[in-house]
Amino acid sequence: MTHSAFKALQTENPWPDITGLTAWDYTLGGGGRELVDALIKSDKPKFMLEIGCFLCASAKRWLNLDPDLKLVGVDPWDEEGLTEQVKRYVGRPNLTRKYPDRETQLQFVHDVETQTPFCTALANLRGLEDRFIPYRGLSPNALYELKEKGFEPDLVYIDAGKNMTDLEVSHTLWPSARITGDDWHWNRAHGYPMRKIVYGFAEKHGYSVEAEWATWVLQPLK
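== Methyltransferase ==
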């Protein structure tokens, strides 16, 4: 069912024309994604769902690990919000670590603004058109829509709102899917809220938690 659902979703969610657009392979991820790499290599998921894609650097990483993997990325790609967000990165460590030259940083902001965040994200995935579907929308509504359309992911990666909803809805809709995500060390000043959310979910549903840097993975209890 999922293969036909994926094909239908491709038809319903075509890529825009990205001819000539500049790709920016930039992520806000804080490390530890080797945990997700290991899951992809060991479990060989056929279909993956990523909730919160930004410029699709992580999606590119997952897809390059396994040529058979297909991925649906859920994100509103809010043009105004994301453009203002990347403008705030100029001169700050999040951007300077990747692009230390200020002229490059300003070019990055210019391209995201003029090309739009959505098209810039897809330019970063150029060549992967047959394996990535951009599904513009907000979780959890978009997750219910995907379920209704027959999409069944084997692996879910959450990098969106820092709340319990994405975890609970993903688990309810796809109880057999492995769940992992980002933001483990987000917001130290408030006691790392994502850790509390993930630990609470794990205790409620019978999982253990493996974490490294910004990445966490729910592991079934043996």
